[in-house]
Amino acid sequence: MMLTEPLFTVLALGTLVILTSAMRVGRLTPLAAVAVAAFVSLATTLRISGVVLIPTVAVVAFVVGHGPWGTAVLRAAVLSATSSLGVIAIASRNVMLGAAPLGDRPTGGQSVVRVLAQGVRTLGRYIVPVEMKTTLINAVTVSLGTVLVGLIVWSLAHIVRSRESVALPVALFTALWWSLLVYSGSTTVLDSLDDRLTAPVFAATAVVIALGLRRGVRAQGRWMPKTMRAMSVVLVVTSIFGGLVASSRFSMIAAREGIGFNDVHATRSALALSLAALPPDTRIASNDPFRAYWLARRSGIELVDPGSLPVDGTYLVWFTEVGGQRSDVATFEPGRSLTPVLSDGQGTLIRIG
């Protein structure tokens, strides 16, 4: 999964470059249209959140070029349909396998306020990427993140008011991506809103802020450029220094201990060793199948609904925290026999029946 994200980001940015160029010259050539459809279709097979590119493509296809309304609508409909081929392929495969069209994801999620707070901290860490959990660092990170959120909203508003058509694809993609992250985080069990989820929109967000500041500087008077230049220098120097420190520390830790689910603490934990010792034909379910896959190193792990547990003989890997939320074992299906096998800091291995 992690290996698909750089490719997805390249495809998304490539799409935005083509759409922006089309807005600049006032037409979308057949070759550009084919490239956009191919890029978006492939991108959505890598990350379903890439669906936000489809309405972006539709809007650009509608407004670019000349001709009557009917032609513009037809152009937008055709390009949207061809750009949706990746989503259609994935949805069809999931339905054939008996899953939900866009994949199974447990509902619940976090409050909108909590999701927004995670986004603010993530944005702040782009400027101060230092892994020191002190009160001062946290306060600075949150403050800078709040400033960036304000700049994003302010810049989007300036782009809309200025009717700068060239910026339309980037602004629309940025607004839709951030909106989707907040919606998904508040309605489903989603990973915390960290830099992995915001990375695809980072470049677009930076462009939006730059365009908004340019428009704002022109509108507010001559004193603004010097102030903005000074602020930019401070932010750039701080980001570079903090980034060097954080990158060096991350590289040393990753080389020594591994990364994420593949670090030594997870792969050598009691839970991982117990899963590895189960017979190959053992049925396994979990409230986080992706994480359980990395521990067990076996496919076919089911996503479990605690209110309707799998058949007896299934081993249940129940993690104590999923998507930044604590999991409550009291919500298990009543009347079922549950035998705890072991428990560690990650979660509990339970035998059903």
Automatic annotation (TrEMBL):
Transmembrane segments: 47-65, 72-92, 135-154, 166-185, 197-217, 229-246
Superkingdom as given in the UniProt entry: Bacteria
Protein name: Dolichyl-phosphate-mannose-protein mannosyltransferase
Organism (species): Raineyella fluvialis
Hydrolase as UniProt keyword: no
Lineage, highest ranks first: Bacteria, Bacillati, Actinomycetota, Actinomycetes, Propionibacteriales
Keyword Transmembrane helix listed: yes
Coiled coil feature spans: none
Alphabetized UniProt keyword annotations: Membrane, Transmembrane, Transmembrane helix
